[in-house]
UniProtKB/TrEMBL annotation, chain A:
Family: Belongs to the tubulin family.
Keywords: Cell projection, Cilium biogenesis/degradation, Cytoplasm, Cytoskeleton, GTP-binding, Microtubule, Nucleotide-binding, Nucleus
Limits of the Tubulin/FtsZ GTPase domain: 40-239
CDD domains assigned: delta_zeta_tubulin-like (cd02189)
Record localization: Cell projection, Cilium; Cytoplasm, Cytoskeleton, Microtubule organizing center, Centrosome, Centriole; Nucleus
An example Gene Ontology CC term for this record: centriole
Name of the protein: Tubulin delta chain
Acetylation as UniProt keyword: no
Superkingdom assignment: Eukaryota
UniProtKB/TrEMBL annotation, chain B:
Protein name (record): Tubulin epsilon chain isoform X2
SUPFAM superfamilies: Tubulin C-terminal domain-like, Tubulin nucleotide-binding domain-like
Annotated SMART domains: Tubulin, Tubulin_C
A single cellular component GO annotation: microtubule
A biological process from GO: microtubule-based process
Similarity comment: Belongs to the tubulin family.
Entry annotated with the keyword Kinase: no
GO molecular function list: GTP binding
Originating gene: tube1
Keywords: Cytoplasm, Cytoskeleton, GTP-binding, Microtubule, Nucleotide-binding
Domain Tubulin/FtsZ 2-layer sandwich: residue ranges: 232-367
Protein origin, superkingdom: Eukaryota
Principal localisation: cytoplasm
UniProt domain Tubulin/FtsZ GTPase: residue ranges: 12-230
Amino acid sequence: MSVVTVQVGQCGNQVGQEFFSVLCNDSSNAKDKLYKDCSHERFFREGPSQDLTARAILIDMEPKVINQTIAKAAKSGKWRYGDKAHFCQKQGSGNNWANGFSVHGPKYEEVVRDLVRKEVEQCDRLTGIVTMMSLAGGTGSGMGTYITQCLRDAYPHTSILNHVTWPYNTGEVIVQNYNSVLTLSHLYQFSDAILVHENDAVHKICAQLMNIKHISFNDINKVITHHLGSVLQPVYTASSSHYSRNPIGEFMSSLVNHPEYKLLSIRNIPQMSSTSLAYSVFNWPGLLRHLRQMLIANAGMEEGIDWAVRAQSASKSDRGRPTRELGFNRSLANLLILRGKDVSSAETGGFKDPALYVPWLPVESAISSWSSSVPFNGYEKSATLVSNSQSLLRSLNSTVGKAWNMFASRAYTHQYMKFGISEEDFLDSFTVLEQVISSYSQL
Amino acid sequence: MSIRRSDGGAGQITGGKISSLKARAVLVDMEEGVVNEILQGPLRDVFDSTQLITDVSGSGNNWAVGHWTYGSTYRDQIVEQVRRAAEHCDCLQCFFLIHSMGGGTGSGLGTYVLKLLEEEFPEVYRIVTSVYPSAEDDVITSPYNSILAMRALTEHADCVLPVENQSLADIVNKIRHMSHSGKGGSIIKKDSTVISSQGGVSGVEKPFDAMNNIVANLLLNITSSARFEGSLNMDLNEIAMNLVPFPRLHYLVPSLTPLYTLADVNIPTRRLDQMFSDAFSKDHQLIRADPKHSLYLACALMVRGNVQVSDLRRNIERLRPTLPFVSWNQEGWKTGLCSVPPVGHTHALLALANNTCVRPTFTELRERFTKLYRKKAHLHHYLQVEGMEQACFTEALTSLSSLIEEYSQLDATKGVCMPEAPRLNIAT
């Protein structure tokens, strides 16, 4: 029932460390012993004196971040990383996807496979692998892609969830659009699902909901991992008496019902600073109503939602016309995860409305609902919606457009060719993503 | 001229104080004066005598002598010393070459070494810090030396950080003027200027020290992310990757802020935002150039200190509309956040701009060259050196002209609305 996490690159490792921190805090505070045990077993190895070691591998091509990450975990006193669970080099990948994918990936393949194998062997039963990386850099994006491919080969029957961080629009890395295009197009071939967090969207949440004045990457990561934790912590998926034993597998089957559609977005409500939380009361109808409109209007958070947008049933005449012009975000599938008090009384019918979905899939398979009565991460009530929808279409289109424009001038391409990525490879990647854009546009 | 790896040296630490640190460096000069001074000064323990390669008579401000005569004489010795230094590295990522363009040794022998590094260590990045002569330079042949050296820089360096003596002098004057005027409310905090050697070991200040400190601070800032932790690291190889869209266009204009910290400034955010604004002002550039009015191909911002990603975002958003970026790189920012500020500062910013504002610098240099070359002034001093031919001059000039032309073509696109490239058509 265990999940192994593979953290690659600076972002992947920073997010990963925060992830385990959230999980550990949440389950340690949980009053439900079953929940706590299930969570511990899933994400940690328990030592003889009840010390927790994360089921995780840390990979980076330079040592500073991994050292910091391991130290930060140890400082918590509540959990740590394994002693030999990391691999790093010294030279870095230079933000070069080709360097990460074509050079470092193959060069260190054996070592990485070995590390993962050793971690997997310590699981009674492996139910899924989660990878964490950014799209913008060189190691996370390039080497992370290569590693995913290896994991797919090594564990053909295990679900692999790729969590990726989409960089800020106004640049962190100049070649981030190239790196993103190369990563997404390759991952699309062998990933089960790509769960995306956009830095811009998360930044807004920090600024407007959490009221943080000087937002740091630490703040960003806390929001991201709050979302991830709300998905992956123990939960009842069917009307069964025990927590789901195959959370990642069920996650995949709920959301990815067609291989052409693998891009997932995530929304969570409520989100606020801990000081505000103490004074707030929520009810399920309110939360779900907001969440539903957030989905329909493609809002990332509960502030600034456009309530004028309405779900529109796709009629035969609409087929082929992009619905995003109408502002309405159409879904292929949704997964609703509710946690906290009175969760059994929550009315989720609003998400079963056929108008939200594509007409060519049965509505029953389009919506799944999981729940747990244990409050999550300090929130008395918390609702998360993972969607396979048109949410990411605009960002994807924008990124591909910018990358294409840059490619048209052949700017920076010599840097990639130096490490074996040719113009042909670029064109193939663009083609794959244009197809994805087209598919999602036509929902 | 020295080559140093960013990580500093291998050393021993006893009682919290580093007691034996050796620079990963090779110092080359064809005169002994400067190197001898270093060996007698407070840095004598940092360098081994084996790391020094010297001669006695100097190059007479003659690039040909530095390049061809001394190049061939000292080639093997230099290769050996560099190899030795390289072997001490766990992982050699980058060479820093520091030299001047106007003289004979730095310029001539320096570029010879650059070519040598490419041959012997092709995988290792070569970042060159070049001090360009100002128009009022007292070395008459500096235009010849500079242009001859430029060709090697264009063809064999991965990145060049050009620095002009005049700009450094202007910055020094500005700071001195500020500290001497001492008007109420504008007192400079002690040791917080970009020209101070706070944190360094030297005692008495020598001429050029203030100017050299600026360049030293440039190198400290550029390596800060490799040396210290931060939430968004920016390694040296990332600089080349992000700032060089086309192999030859690798001249990156550096600017450093703040130049100084005022003692009584009380509004942290405003000071921070001012720092970002200043990075783009022509007074802070280390060559005489105005990037704001030319075209940006790419720009890197390396921030040090207690600065968060939101501060970075806010300032990029604020300044972006005022800066012309090339059409295919409208959001071309490379950013880094290093937690540790420079000694004496709470935060600092280094900007590296790949910007067409270098064109006037190169054009002016070419004009000075042409003035001399037309009259064949001093040419015989060069041509009489074994290995030197007239072709060296013409080829160097052609190389520079074509470089200038490439920048011109990009400049021509400034302000022109370029249509977006039509996207691939996918059969549905």
